[in-house]
């Protein structure tokens, strides 16, 4: 009787896990659909600062959330890819409805579209790794924060590759502050938070040095072209 009870409990737990995975897949699909459609259908129809905050940070937040809530690394890869592809397809579909057809809607070109997909999936996988309670988790959290701050620096710094004058100061300060708060929230203890914030500052500082090198002509033109591919 005890063996039967234990077997039933195991099957029930397995069933709950499978149902959770199914719900997560559906949520990733629907999340990407909503984010992509809303982003394109409302583009240019609201305040400029709202568009600057929505694109790309809502897309990035979706990938990060999907990856961080996955039940395993493989599922994080699958669900973040599903969410990213759904987002991009929905955005292109919404743009087609508005009369703007082409692959350059996202990322500026076909190559930019592919790079955008890689960035979104990569961020989702980093989000999953942040669940670890070791230095790998700290490193992943630091990398997430650095990616966000790097985009802020690129968009807010005059003369940079993807500079947007209207992005400074309010949108840049809001996103920068939220990025640091996100890094802190991703870690579960003080030591991890300090380490993750320090890594964020280090990685963002290296990016800022790279931007300086590009502006001064120290970095070859090929590297500048690679850096010119924007976030989604």
Describe, in plain words, how this protein is organized in 3D:
The chain is mostly helical. It contains nine helices and no strands. The chain has helices spanning 2-41, 48-54, 57-68, 73-97, 110-129, 135-156, 170-186, 190-216, 221-227. Helix 1 (2-41) packs parallel to helix 4 (73-97) and helix 3 crosses helix 5. The radius of gyration is 20 Å and the shape is flat. The chain starts with a helix and ends in a 5-residue tail after the last helix. The model is unreliable at 221-232 (pLDDT under 50).
Topology summary:
Layout: H1 2-41, H2 48-54, H3 57-68, H4 73-97, H5 110-129, H6 135-156, H7 170-186, H8 190-216, H9 221-227
Helix pairs in contact: 1-3, 1-4, 3-4, 3-5, 4-5, 5-6, 6-7, 6-8, 7-8
The computed structural class is mainly alpha
| Major sheet | none
Order of helices and strands: HHHHHHHHH
Calculate the mean pLDDT score and round it. Answer: 81
Give the overall form: flat
Short description:
The chain is mainly α and 232 residues long. Helices cover 76% and strands 0% of the residues.
Task: Offer a few descriptive terms.
232 residues; mainly alpha; 9 helices; disordered C terminus
